Amino acid sequence: MTGARGFMGRRLVERLTLLGKMVIGIDKEDGDIANEDALGLFEKEDISYVFHLAGKTFVPDSWKNPSEFYRVNVLGTQNVLDFCRKTGAMLTYVSSYVYGTPQYLPIDETHPLNAYNPYSHTKILAEEVCGYYRDQFGVQMTILRPFNAYGPGQSEPFLIPELIRKIFDKANPIIEVSDTRPKRDYIFIDDLVDALLLSMDGPKGIYNVGSGYSVSVGELIDLLSNISGVMKVTVSANAERPLEIFDLFADVSKITDALKWQPKTGLGQGLAACIKGYSG
After folding, report:
1. Which domains does the chain show, CATH number per domain?
2. Using one digit for the tens of pLDDT, what is the confidence trace for 123-146?
3. Residues 6+ apart with CB under 8 A from 152
């Protein structure tokens, strides 16, 4: 598993271990996934399945240093695919932010792909490399496209941990945000891990992973405030980001039909878990 010590990877390692699987996890501290020989040491380990979770993920940073995002996310994925080609291992690759401005809602897997920042372009390119290795080299794989994953242990600058910090910040009597209007589809980390596990044995393909509905930043603040019992005034700058998307949510009927997956954790329940796990 690449990215084994990340937000998603830690939870997946725990679940796989509980299932009795032997997991070899690597992360950036173990080496550069974009180096050609990054995985060479593992080619004789009789690895049957690979989860590729590693990558550069914070979208604003992709505008500041796009070359590093292309190097890690595209070349790193190609290295993982070549490892699978050589060893015969199957693969689950986690992609995201590939649809751009929605042409229709909910978004299904046939929706056109459209890059709206360097990060999303790297994921689209990586998916293209996956498709080539599948078609030309016979690498069996599933691509999961999770929408906005969240849960205990996620760190800032992601939105939900940032909002929780602002709610509990005793030094500031208000909650300041750039814009309360954008709506996103939030999927709890445990439900995403369920989908990752099901991808191992289920039909290979490309699947959205989401809740199937969207919630605005303002609605998130209201929910978090009600759950925590901390009420503050919200101040929005109404600062629209370049290429802002104001509503986005997934059609998850394909993964429900093929892998018998569906989200189990309601947003209120998931947010309560995040608040409980907040350490301040």
Report:
1. 7-149+187-212+248-264 (3.40.50.720)
2. 999 999 999 999 999 999 999 999
3. 189, 273, 274, 276, 277
